[in-house]
Sequence to fold (418 residues):
Amino acid sequence: MSNDTLFAEALTHFPGGVSSPVRAFRAVGGTPKFFRKASGAWFEDEDGQRFLDLCMSWGPLILGHAQPDILAAVNEAMHEGLTFGAPSRRELALARKIKAMVPFIEKMRFVSSGTEAVMSALRAARGFTGRDRILKFDGCYHGHSDGLLVKAGSGLVTFGAPTSAGVPKGIAELTSVVSLDDLETLERTFAELGSELAAAIIEPIPANNGLLLQRPEFLQRLRELCTKHGVILIFDEVISGFRVAPGGAAERLGITPDLATYGKIIGGGMPVGLYGGRKDIMGVVAPDGPVYQAGTLSGNPVAMAAGLATMERLTPAFYAGLEANAAKWAAAFETLPGLHCPRYGSLLWPLFQDGVRRSDAVKGEAISSFNRLHRALLGQDVYLPPSGYEVAFLSGAHGDAELDHFKQAVAAVAKAFA
Fold:
């Protein structure tokens, strides 16, 4: 069946016809693509059209689609059983590898998504400190649990306001929100609320609402303030973890959080998450402590096998090659008139605006231009993330042939943006 036919049926089954909102193409216009298979840097839709993928399942496919070693590991594991609901040796193998790559993780817990990892890390922080309030930063996304679907409320920084229906006001009010790149408000918030805060959570490389690269001194001061006030600093590395370096953003920035959260990259694209860090904080998690958190599919053997096969291939040489290659792709993006492409490692943000560090600084016309670019490149067999606020991702499968295809596609649409 064609994409259009499939989407028409999907509208009868799912809200908006999709299982996750951004897939609906509401931001960029048009009908969503239904994909049937993928390999390397390419995937093919149900109409038989091939696309160069610059989304890569929103980041976790750092080695590319259907990487042979990952497929072999998954095949071996699934023939021994899809899930046990019990411990397996594969959990230990992946845990050893992760601890070798991220030395500050003393203890960890596998879960099934980034959202679950963040929710659980915050619960552990509250249990450890005995405090209820948390601090987050406007422009950072940490999943869809109630206490994090919050924006800055009017007036005082003390109270947050829900950004989604269905989030109780009382829960939102336990979350304080500060803008990124606002050191003055950060200082004032800790001065006023430091003794009430259980945790401060931030994407050290904010990449869920644009690539909002922060000044190192802002992040370092956040670390200092958390230490001073006994607040647990949580780095949400669901996107940046294992993608920008073996030790993620924490390694590259030289800043050690108390806890960190990770997402599906540690499962090679399978549904996996992880939270971990200081062993004294993790010691409050059941069954060692009073903070309850559980999951039937946590640490399932198939995801663990895929994760280990991925981690074993993330060598210093791999990261160096990916970094150098990503610089070429960013330069190719910037041949489009008026487009700037901030980059961190293999994360790229094509935006028709320069110097953006806060999501509220993004101009409407910059997003409108991106929407035009998305449609234009889709016509040239290039698939960008379907939102101007999302970043593009590269993988080890994006080689010279793919870059040549991309350059030709950009050249074909460039006149429309002159």
Summary: The longest helix spans residues 316-333. The chain has 13 helices and 16 strands. The longest strand covers residues 133-138.
